[in-house]
Design a protein that fits this description.
Blueprint lengths: L13 H14 L16 E4 L7 H11 L1 E6 L13 E7 L2 E14 L2 E9 L5 E6 L8 H5 L6 E5 L10 E3 L3
Parallel strand pairs: 1-2
Antiparallel strand pairs: 1-7, 2-6, 3-4, 4-5, 5-6, 7-8
Length: 170
Amino acid sequence: MPVMVSTGELNEKLQDAIEHQIIPQLQQTRLLSKLQSEQSLPRLTLVFDRKAYDIPFFTRLWKNHQIAIITYRKNVKDTWDENGFTSHDVVVGSNTITMQLCEKEIILNRDTFTEVRRLIQNKHQTSVLTNNKQINPFLIVNLRQAPGRQVILPHDRPAANRTLATAHLQ
């Protein structure tokens, strides 16, 4: 069951939709109704594609609302040493896929993120970025396997009872 559904053309306007439509609606719920007492923990995590990629935007989400993000990293030019990648079984839908993954903590514009890269057969590396320190970094690769789906991960329940809620943004 979705936390919310927002429809509209969300290409380059995805950031505006998040800040001016989605967050105000979430503030009416218990997900964003009050600040967490623990300032280092996210209240929720938004998962979206590169259309909203912008480090200052991620900083605003965190500083103003304690919202963490998971997204593909844009404009990755460097490659990581292939020896740092290890095999991980990742469940995607009903299939288990073995992926070569590597995780590093990185600093972008003075903000700390976890970057997870997947090495594919042609030596290409895809990069996923998060500032959620609670989530298993290899889970973020799984969350990004559903293109076109924007996901809201609530953090108001113990991890064992937490379910993924999706908001389809079209």
